[in-house]
Amino acid sequence: MSDWGHYILRDSYFSISQGQFDGYSTVNVTGYNPDVDSGADETVWGAGGLYPWSVWDSARVVTVVSASGSDQGSVVVSGLDANFDPITEEIDCTGTTPSTGSVQFKRVNSAVYKNGAANNAGDITLTANGTTIGLIQTGIGQTLTGIYTVPAGHTAYILTGNFSVQKGEDSQVRFFVRPFGQSFRIVHIGEVYQGSYEYDFHAPVAMPEKTDLDVQAALVETNNTRTTTNFSMILVRNNAVQ
Questions:
Q1: What sign for the dihedral angle of Cα 40, 223, 135, 112?
Q2: In whole angstroms, what is the distance from residue 79 CA to residue 179 CA?
Q3: In whole angstroms, what is the distance from residue 121 CA to residue 180 CA?
Q4: Largest alpha-carbon pair distance within the chain?
């Protein structure tokens, strides 16, 4: 592609971020797993292990609780309802006392802690049906979870992504997707040693509505290996004007 072509694309993405195109929006996913163990396959998310997708076989309410009594704000949970339409709920965070919302979620994509200018003083755990489905680590203010589910009536176009592993360690990165009604499969795989692995798609990769995305780390050689992931998408409403 010519430099002019790249300029046109960058200009279009900027306009989408400004909200100039109805039905188009940007999505940026960030994940962090500080403790991937040798011989384990783990999702790049703060709670460790593989993400528990099976909890969403039914729609669930979400419970939040902090490890610190100082966290007296709220947690804004963003996800999808039983029809896979976008929903949010703001749940009171009452420190070490669990607080349960009333909205039924079919998926949770992210959560953010709100308390004025204060960050969360302790780890805030999100659960559904007694299973951990999100973690807001101390002082971070939001979940860092390398998963995402495409809303109904939309297509997500993956533009770029990256994966990193700490100095002196190595890992395989596996990008899994699960189209609605099917099983998970790998669509992108790479290897990285004490650095960052970048994947830029010249032709954006289309993910249909209700598709689950899950970035995983595998084949690390040392316990407690730190890994991160980021990927960016353009979310397009399927009936948006082209």
A1: negative
A2: 17
A3: 38
A4: 57
Helix (H) or strand (E) holding 4: helix 3-17
C-beta separation of 196 from 163 below 8 A: yes
The answer to whether 124 and 76 have CB atoms below 8 angstroms apart is no
- AA identity, residue 77: V
- Classify residue 81 by burial, with Cβ atoms within 10 Å: 0-12, 13-18, 19+: middle
Structure tokens at 152: 């109904």
The answer to whether 227 touches 171, Cβ cutoff 8 Å, is yes
Please give the Cα distance from 41 to 39 (Å, whole number). Answer: 7
**Best CA proximity match to 136, nearest among 56, 74, 197, 210:** 74
Pull the structure tokens for residue 146.
Answer: 């390398």
Query: Whole-angstrom Cα distance, residue 149 to residue 147?
Result: 7
Each of the 242 residues of the chain gets a pLDDT tens digit; together they read 344 344 445 567 778 777 777 889 999 999 999 999 999 999 999 999 999 999 999 999 999 999 999 999 999 999 999 999 999 999 999 999 999 999 999 999 999 999 988 899 999 999 999 999 999 999 999 999 999 999 999 999 999 999 999 999 999 999 999 999 999 999 999 999 999 999 888 889 999 999 999 999 999 999 999 999 999 999 999 988 65
**DSSP line for 60-123:** B--EEEESSTT--SEEEEEEE-TTS-EEEEEEE-BTTB-EE--PPBSEEEEEEEEBTBPPPSS-
